[in-house]
Design brief:
alpha+beta; Glutaredoxin; three-stranded antiparallel sheet; 5 helices
Length: about 210
């Protein structure tokens, strides 16, 4: 399955604090469930180079973020994201948070900014990857934050999409939402096919 299999959703508004933008199907590159995830080579907040191939043999989560996005803040202010990160890492999952916002736009983070973001929220990712030129974001066809990808130990993409089914900025909506990411991790870590491998990602548009 690829993103061209999705029903196309309308972008409601492009503001960071209003209605969500929905990730739209794209023609290039083709990101497909059941196919190898694109390799990347990118620096993290500590100046270390990270490659997908370095994590062969482990499950990997890629979480696209923007510190100024109200939809991202919903999941951090509620500690939902940190709980997912902690639970995943306790099960030997590699969790990589990615920031692909261009330097001239709201929410851009350099290494120091990424470290402050981690400290502010007591975030638990393995690393925060810095993608200021948007190359990695474009490789994965990422359009909004937050947006999640899960890769199995053989490098195959098994999940892509949103955090949950509540496309709001309200912390109160975290409880009772369908936890797409947690459910997908449970499935793949148990050796089962992910029951919902593609979901709609909602959030703030990434400005490359």
């Amino acid at each position: 399955m690829t993103r061209t299999d999705w029903p196309i959703a309308v972008v409601v508004i492009l503001g960071f604090h209003a209605g969500p933008a929905w990730a739209q199907p794209q023609q290039v590159p083709e990101i497909a469930i059941g196919k190898p995830a694109p390799e990347f080579s990118i620096m993290d907040e500590d100046g270390q180079r990270r490659r997908l191939s370095d994590y062969r043999g482990a499950h990997v989560v890629l979480e696209w973020t923007n510190r100024d996005c109200a939809f991202v803040k919903k999941h951090y202010d509620s500690s939902n994201m940190q709980s997912l990160q902690y639970d995943a890492r306790s099960r030997d999952v590699v969790w990589l948070t990615v920031t692909s916002t261009a330097p001239s736009h709201a929410g851009y983070m350099d290494g120091g900014g990424a470290q402050r973001f981690r400290n502010r929220y007591d975030a638990k990712p393995t690393s925060i990857l810095l993608d200021p030129d948007g190359r990695m974001g474009r490789q994965y066809d990422v359009e909004v934050t937050p947006e999640i990808f899960i890769i199995d130990p053989t490098g195959i993409l098994v999940y892509m999409g949103g955090m949950d089914d509540k496309a709001t900025t309200s912390v109160a909506d975290v409880d009772g939402a369908t936890d797409y990411v947690g459910n997908a991790l449970d499935d793949t870590l148990a050796g089962r096919p992910v029951s919902r491998p593609i979901t709609r990602a909602y959030g703030c548009p990434i400005v490359y």
